[in-house]
Amino acid sequence: MPDSSGPHPTPAAPAEKKPLTIVMGCDTFAPDVNGAARFAERLAAGLVEHGHDVHVVAPAASRRHGTWIEEHEGQKMTAHRLRSWRWYPHDWLRFALPWMSKANARRILDEVKPDVVHFQSHIVVGRGLAAEAEKRGIRIVATNHVMADNIVEFTLLPKFLRKTFVKLAWADARKSFDRAESVTTPTRKAAEFLEASTGLRGVHAVSCGIDAHNYTPDFTPRTGNRILFVGRVTGEKQIDVLLNAVKLLPENLDARLQIVGGGDQLKNLQSMAETLGIADRVDFLGYVSDEELRQAYTRATVFAMPSIAELQSIATMEAMASALPVVAADAMALPHLVHEGENGHLFRPGDAQDLADKLESVLTLPQEELDVLKRASLRIVAAHDIQTTISTFESLYRGEPVAEPVTDAAPSVPAPE
C-alpha cells in the first residue's frame, strides 16, 4: 500500500566528482616535438581544462631547472623541470640523471601529494615516480609510447649487442609497468606488441586522441600535386623510401614533396635528394610553428607515412583531420588509421615502387573521387576525439572500470540488407 507518512525526499543528485591532483611523468615533453611529447602536452592541457590540478615532471629544456607555471595549449599547469643533460648521439634529446630519479620523485610526491601518478615513459622519470608512488599507496597509471627497437640506434651499441639490449630493455620496463594499476598504449596493435614484448596482460588501447576542430580541410579543386610527410627525420621513419618513391613518380604528375620536422638524418636525406636528382622537387621545412603546420596539411594533396614503427601516429591523425588521403606502410598500428581503398592505401614496408604506385593512384584521381577519400579520412579520425581520451583517463585515475573506446570507424556505406 502507498506510504502516507509524509512527503518523500527528492533523490539526491549524484555527487559531482572532485577534481584530482595529477602528477604526469615524462621523459620528453614540450618544447620537444614528437608524438609522445605532443600527446602528454595535449592530455595535460585537457585535464586542466576539466578542472584538475596537473603537475608535469620532465627534463628541463635547457640548463635552467626548477618548478614554475607553464602554459601549454592555452592552459596553465605546474612544471617540475629536472636538471638535464644533452644526449649527443641524438639531435635534441635531453635526459634527467637516472640515479636521481627516485630522489626527484620523493621530493615532488611529498610536496604535491597527488591522487594519481601517470607516467608516459618508464625509462628515467617514470621509473622513479612509479617506485616512490607505490611506497606511498598512490594510484599509478602507465602509458607506453616506446619501442625499444627505436631507442637502440642512439645507444652507440655495436649491432651484435642490439638484440640483447632490446630484450633486457623490455624486461626492465616490465618492472615499472608491474607497479601500475592500469597500463595503456595508443592502439590495440600497440597493446598486443607491448604484451608480447613484456609478458603484461590486460593492456588498454586508448587513442592519443585529436581535436579535429584545430585543423582545416580544403575541398576546393587542387592546383597541384603536393605530398606531405610530418615527423621526426630519423631512421625508423624510412623517409629514404619516400624519396626513392618520389623519384619513381611520372614527371608529368609534377609532384612536390614537403618534409616537416627535424632529426639526425636531415643532412643525409638532403644529400640523397641531390643524388637522386629530385632536390628541386623536395622541400625540407624543418621545425615549423603550429599554424605553419596546419597550413601545410591544408594545402597538401596526400599524406605519406613510410614509417615501420608507429604505435599510433599523431601526424597521420592530424593529416586525416585535415581531410587528407593517406598512403602509409602496412606496419604496426598504421592500418588502424588507413583503411585500404577507403581513405587511402597501404604499401609494402620498404618497397619504394609500391609506395610510388599507391601515391600515383591517389594523385591521378579525378577531384570527385579524391574527395571521397578525403571525406573518409574525416569520418575515420572522428572516432579518435580527444575528449573521449581525456574521459577515459579520468576514469582510470579514479580506479573506475573503463570500456576501451572504439576507434575503428564503421564503413561509410551500409551493407545491403
From TrEMBL:
Look up the coiled coil feature and give its residue ranges: none
Q: Where is the Glycosyltransferase subfamily 4-like N-terminal domain?
A: 33-212
What InterPro entries does the database record attribute to this sequence? Answer: Glyco_trans_1 (IPR001296), Glyco_trans_4-like_N (IPR028098), Glycosyltransferase_grp1 (IPR050194)
Q: Tell me the ranges covered by the Glycosyl transferase family domain, including all copies.
A: 223-370
Q: Which GO terms describe its biological process?
A: carbohydrate derivative biosynthetic process
Q: Per UniProt, what is one GO molecular function of this protein? A: glycosyltransferase activity
Alphabetical UniProt keywords: Glycosyltransferase, Transferase
PANTHER family annotated for this entry?
Answer: SULFOQUINOVOSYL TRANSFERASE SQD2 (PTHR45947:SF3)
Record protein name field: D-inositol 3-phosphate glycosyltransferase
Species for this entry: Leifsonia soli
Traced from the root, the source organism's taxonomic lineage reads: Bacteria, Bacillati, Actinomycetota, Actinomycetes, Micrococcales
